[in-house]
TrEMBL record:
Stated name of the protein: Adenosylhomocysteinase like 2
Pfam families named in the record: AdoHcyase, AdoHcyase_NAD
Family: Belongs to the adenosylhomocysteinase family.
S-adenosyl-L-homocysteine hydrolase NAD binding domain: residues covered: 266-426
Organism: Scleropages formosus (Asian bonytongue)
Highest classification ranks of the organism: Eukaryota, Metazoa, Chordata, Craniata, Vertebrata
Length: 502
């Protein structure tokens, strides 16, 4: 499939379908209230703050605990339109990005095929995602396709400082560092959005915080914004709520429910990253451990498969009878959390919900129980209930805390349950390609093709993303004959699945 401007990829047809809304009760703004720029849980040494995704060791004795907001830094070209931990780490970050490029064949192929056409020329993309080597490949691809980008982090712990430095050195306006406070988090988003002489016309979001901030502080910006691309369950739910309330001002693309996101990022990547994240933070052995995984969606399936393969005894909690039956057929015991909370060694949440593990369950956990979250935000586990005078918090290492009860019992809390994927070097290979395609489609769509609603990525694009990865595996697709295609009622070039297929 040759790229001749992705808006024509579907033969002039949008191919997108509008999604029905589920009845959502949670409010759009679920961010915790602001706290000080430094909290006790984040007042840790530089040596433990900067953790890199490669095995290499890198330190800079000149760096200290001074907030990046209080520093004056410039890149080699004299630009200071960024705020990061340490610009001196740029060379190290560049090597990280080069390694990531080898594992992201779809984006690299897209960059090679489309950069001559510049399908994003004139696009001004403001983004709020994890800032990792993989996201850097996406940002540099968008830039190669003609876009201008300004970026903040969607998670206060996930930024790879060396990668942020490499991006800043490369001329990107990046506002992020690992270990931001809540106040820093919103300040960084505001710096991306509120800049003189530059206004975004596209939003790329992970979790909905950027979209929420613009709605709250700069609603007039939506007059020039052509669309929103959202990749997370949380962010998509927020978009549905806006649309249902009649407050969605622009078309939005739901990348979260694309097949290449659900299967590859949620299932296959989480299958690897859950083990990597737990090993990096706790050095735990999995064999014989009793683990309860809350939620058996694609993320839960990946976690359960990995833990079962390592010899763990895995329990599953579910509210959906279909997912529950899948768990049973896959050999997992379906339980209520209250039935196993006293005996399990590890609790993993991946429901996308709130108050899944409340204080009552935390009180009943055994000594040494590890608690972590694979969802986007920290709403699944009631961490706020642990901030009480009778409990003691001890920082063990970066993103690992012991919470100690008066009787001496302690639980191990990872990243304050803000998504252990951020601790891992194993990240998505396919998700970022649908993001790029969705941006191109929304940006170039003729007026009237998309209304102020939420749309799914069409299967034609999903299949295209998958096809870009196949050469990496030396994989060879079988082609339908004309007779076979006619028999199946398909175009021999696809799409091979209906739009509702997930």
């Amino acid at each position: 499939l040759r790229l001749q401007g992705l808006p024509t990829l579907l033969g002039g047809q949008s191919g997108f379908i509008s999604i029905q809304f589920a009845d959502q009760k949670q409010e759009f703004n679920k961010r915790p209230s602001k706290i000080g720029r430094r909290s006790l849980s984040r007042s840790i040494s530089q040596s433990s703050t900067d953790s890199y995704s490669s095995a290499a060791s890198y330190t800079d004795s000149s760096d200290d605990e001074t907030s990046p907001r209080d520093k004056q830094q410039k890149n080699s070209k004299g630009s200071s339109d960024f705020c990061i931990k340490n610009i001196k780490q740029a060379d190290f970050g560049r090597r990280e990005i080069e390694i990531a490029e080898q594992e992201m064949p779809a984006l690299m192929a897209l960059r090679k095929r489309a950069q001559g056409e510049k399908p994003l020329a004139g696009a001004k993309v403001v983004g709020c995602t994890h800032i990792t080597a993989q996201t850097a490949v996406l940002m540099e691809t968008l830039s190669a396709l003609g876009a201008q980008c300004r970026w903040a982090a969607c998670n206060i712990y996930s930024t790879q400082n060396e990668v942020a430095a490499a991006l800043a050195e490369g001329g990107f306006s990046v506002f992020a560092w690992k270990g931001e406070s809540e106040d820093d988090f919103w300040w960084c988003i505001d710096r991306c959005v509120n800049v003189e002489g530059w206004q975004p016309n596209m939003i790329l979001d992970d979790g909905g915080d950027l979209t929420h901030w613009i709605y709250k502080k700069y609603p007039n910006m939506f007059k020039k914004i052509k669309g929103i691309v959202e990749e997370s369950v949380t962010g998509v739910h927020r978009l549905y709520q806006l649309s249902k309330a009649g407050k969605l001002c622009v078309p939005a693309m739901n990348v979260n429910d694309s097949v290449t996101k659900q299967k590859f990022d949620n299932l296959y990547c989480c299958r690897e990253s859950i083990l990597d994240g737990l090993k990096r933070t706790t050095d735990v052995m999995f064999g014989g451990k009793q683990v309860v995984v809350c939620g058996y969606g694609e993320v839960g399936k990946g976690c359960c498969a990995a833990l079962k393969a390592m010899g763990s005894i895995v329990y599953v909690t579910e509210i959906d009878p279909i997912c529950a039956l899948q768990a049973c057929m896959d050999g997992f015991r379906l339980v209520k959390l209250s039935e196993v909370i006293r005996q399990v060694d590890i609790v993993i949440t991946c429901t996308g919900n709130k108050n899944v593990v409340v204080r009552e369950y935390l009180d009943r956990m055994k000594n040494g129980c590890i608690v972590c979250n694979m969802g986007h935000s920290n709403t699944e586990i009631d961490v706020a209930s642990l901030r009480t005078p009778e409990l003691t918090w001890e920082r063990v290492r970066s993103q690992v805390d012991h919470v100690i009860w008066p009787d001496g019992k302690r639980i191990v809390l990872l990243a304050e349950v803000r998504h252990p994927l951020i601790l891992s070097s194993v990240t998505t290979l396919t998700l970022l390609s649908p993001q790029a395609l969705a941006l191109i489609e929304l940006y170039n769509a003729p007026e009237g093709r998309y209304k102020q609603d939420v749309y799914l990525l069409p299967k034609k694009m999903d299949e295209y993303v998958a096809s870009l990865h196949l050469p990496t595996f030396d994989a060879h697709l079988t082609e339908l004959t004309e007779e076979q295609a006619k028999y199946l009622g398909l175009n021999k070039n696809g799409p091979f699945k209906p739009n509702y297929y997930r």
